Amino acid sequence: MDLHQLRCFIAVAEELNFGRAAARLHMTQPPLSRQIQLLEKSLGGALFERNNRHVQLTHMGKHLLTESRLILKLADRLESSVQLCASGETGTLAMGFTAVFSWNFIPQLLKELTVKLPGVNFQLFEQVSHKQISSIENNSIDVGFVRHVPPNPLLAWLPLQGETFVAAFHCDHPLARKRKISLSAFNNEPFFLYSPNEARHFYDRITDLFAFNDITPDFKYQLAQTHTILGLVNAGLGCAIVPASSRTLGMPNVTFMNIEGVNIQAHNFLVYSKANPNPVLPVFLKALSEALITL
User: Fold this and answer.
1) Percent of the chain predicted with pLDDT > 90
2) CA 160/CA 119 separation, integer angstroms
3) Which InterPro entries does the record match to this protein (predicted)?
């Protein structure tokens, strides 16, 4: 039994006439009759009662008609689904991102993509940048939103809009009344720094900034996540330099201020493997480029 035989059977069952069924299928009657005979043989019973005047379905034929329609409907749906999958219009895309991206960028991006790519299922993975790179290299994720891209010829990357750094002080600190502060204000202040292992990009940007300007804060802890650092600032235990998007975290006792003369930015990149075979990837990249216009 195959799909062609089922289509032949359905045509005869609906027309109840071999001649009309053959015409409907654009074939002659003898090959059609042969297909019905082969189907009856494989099923072990008659599907039609035939005489010179009438063709009628047997009980088994009526049952097969119901099931055959379902089978062909599923087959047609399967064909369409596979075609959409091959074109990248449906499927799954595994997306990595750092915690900072999750505060605003990722939610807004997903809002856009659910409209542009309704057939794509996005799997989300919050990881620090170097872990995302490893996940991309071993095909655990398809794309990553990271702070840095290592020199790897197998990786492709797209620069995204960066963001400035701002100072974060407890609202009761004397400096919190100012709109801007100088970098020298951090001298000898208890300071929470990013981890050189888990947040290398931020660590390098901030420590290089202090070293270049001969500033020496009182370094207390090295931490991986911005919200953890701001939690300590919120408790009045010290200060920090964080990405400007940190304002969206809504820490009630934290005041954010611009730093005079500091123009360094936190870099943002989309990265993926050039060898990634996922057909959704090029469709995603096109949709992303369109979404970035408004994000």
Assistant:
1) 77
2) 25
3) LysR_HTH_N (IPR000847), LysR_subst-bd (IPR005119), WH-like_DNA-bd_sf (IPR036388), WH_DNA-bd_sf (IPR036390)
